[in-house]
Design goal:
By secondary structure, the protein is of the alpha/beta class. The protein has 3 domains: 1-120 and 256-325, 3-Layer(bba) Sandwich (FAD/NAD(P)-binding domain), CATH 3.50.50.60; 122-254, FAD/NAD(P)-binding domain, CATH 3.50.50.60; 327-421, no CATH class. It has 8 helices and 26 strands. It has helices spanning 13-24, 62-75, 139-149, 164-175, 194-201, 261-266, 303-321, 402-406; strands at 2-9, 30-33, 49-51, 60-61, 79-81, 85-89, 94-99, 103-114, 118-120, 136-138, 156-160, 179-185, 208-210, 212-218, 225-230, 243-246, 249-252, 256-258, 290-292, 333-338, 348-349, 357-362, 368-377, 380-390, 396-401, 413-419. Strand 11 (156-160), helix 4 and strand 12 form a beta-alpha-beta unit. The chain is globular and about 65 Å long.
């Protein structure tokens, strides 16, 4: 059986950043397992710019951003296997994988970093009536077809869902000569970043219809038309509000979900809100020595935050194998998200193991204007941060100080909530 100090599952932005950080922290024996035929993950098909503003203080395309980390992996001679599918991870960190060259093989890992990224929410969950003709794609599939394969999915396009990939594809299809008729969004707010709504829809005159969904798809061989309708507060279509658009393509951008089949089969505890692993302040999952970072943990809006989180996971995995990750008998503090806040990452904090500053990331469940992010230590309000606007499409964060937590030795619960005043 092969043996490595750290095995990283996934060679996208999270996996690359975790590998580089682990090597810089002093671990030599590292292996990245990537199922695609090249490193870089989803960034290879994200040829638009807007990446790297936080990490590199300059604007890069997705492939450029990925290559910055790939260069470090090559320079530091970190091992990686491509076209390799991880089949299973056991509770004692035996990783079972397979590829054409090695067949099925096992690796005993000192620590494992889960960095599998996320996938698009499948259309099956959308229950759209009508036939199942050609011309229906997820937005990410269409992005790959246009940007990597060089195929044009269609010429007249309707997009359902206003996640970031859908917004970016509205612009991309327009630039390639297609006519994007409308973007329909079931919810009363967009799931994407504000800057993408402005740059990808407003700048190209593409209408965004909130509280609308697709109620009918026409065409047997190929999509020929799509009907959308307004939905009420119960999310059901309102009769009489139907609008029909002739088109040959329907793109679905209905959100992303962490890719956690492996985590689930390994017995990692998953958060029902994020569908990602439950982690502590070190980004360690419920299985000791198994860490998670990036979109497999929770879906991020910026890749810069993925890299930042992955760096921490890589450093902590390195500490774990070198047995320098502080152990503690102290009971962990539980983080609770409520009243507008949907979840927190991490879910528990042990003050003996945390850094001087800890970033707690979360998302809100609706659009809030002129509200406050409040942080309570048990029943005492410690932070009250005014925010002009908060939306589900943008991640929020609060920063906790170790020395502040030390003032509350009996603290059991930290609660994050959204308040009007």
């Amino acid at each position: 059986m092969l043996s490595y100090d750290i095995v990283i599952v996934g060679g996208g932005p999270a996996g690359l950043a975790a590998a580089v950080a682990a090597r810089e922290a002093g671990t030599q024996s590292i292996l990245i397992l990537e199922r695609d035929h090249e490193l870089g993950g989803i960034l290879n098909q994200c040829i638009h710019n807007g990446f790297g503003l936080h990490t590199f203080k300059e604007e890069l395309t997705g492939p450029e951003y990925a290559y910055r980390f790939m260069e470090k992996v090559f320079e530091q001679k970190i091992e990686y296997k491509l076209n390799t599918m991880v089949m299973d991870i056991s509770a004692d960190r035996v990783v079972t994988a397979m590829n054409k060259k090695d067949g099925m093989f096992e690796i005993q890992a000192g620590a494992v970093v889960l960095a599998m990224g996320c996938r698009e929410r499948p259309r099956g969950a959308l229950n759209i009536p009508g036939y199942r003709p050609a011309g229906i794609f997820s937005a990410g599939t269409a992005q790959r077809l246009v940007n990597i394969e060089g195929y044009m999915p269609g010429r007249e396009v309707v997009i359902l869902g206003s996640g970031d990939i859908g917004l970016i594809m509205a612009r991309r299809m327009t630039l390639e000569g297609a006519k994007v008729k409308v973007v329909a969004e079931l919810l009363p707010f967009s799931g994407g970043l504000k800057r993408n709504i402005v740059q990808c829809l407003d700048d190209f005159g593409i209408p965004l219809k909130l509280s609308h969904t697709v109620v009918d798809i026409e065409g047997k061989e190929r999509v020929s038309a799509v009907t959308i309708a307004e939905v009420g507060p119960d999310m059901k279509p309102i009769p009489g509000t139907e609008e029909r658009y002739t088109c040959d393509t329907l793109l679905l951008s209905c959100g992303l979900i962490p890719e956690n089949e492996l985590s689930k089969s390994a017995g990692v505890e998953l958060n029902p809100v994020t569908s990602g692993p439950v982690v502590n302040e070190s980004l360690e999952t419920s299985i000791p020595g198994v860490f998670a970072c990036g979109n497999v943990l929770h879906v991020h809006d910026l890749v810069d935050f993925v890299s930042e989180e992955a760096k921490k996971a890589g450093e902590n995995a390195s500490k774990y194998v070198r047995k320098t990750l502080a152990s503690s008998d102290k009971e962990s503090i539980k983080l609770v998200a409520t009243e507008g806040a949907r979840y927190t990452v991490p879910v528990t904090i042990n003050t003996d193991r945390m850094d001087d500053l800890l970033t707690v990331r979360f998302r809100v469940g609706a659009v809030f204007q002129d509200s406050y992010v409040s942080v309570y230590f048990d029943d005492e309000r410690i932070m009250h941060l005014k925010k002009r606007i908060m939306a589900p499409g943008e991640m929020e964060q609060v920063i906790l100080q170790k020395k502040k937590l030390a003032e509350y030795p009996d603290l059991k619960t930290i609660t994050i909530k959204i308040e009007k005043e």
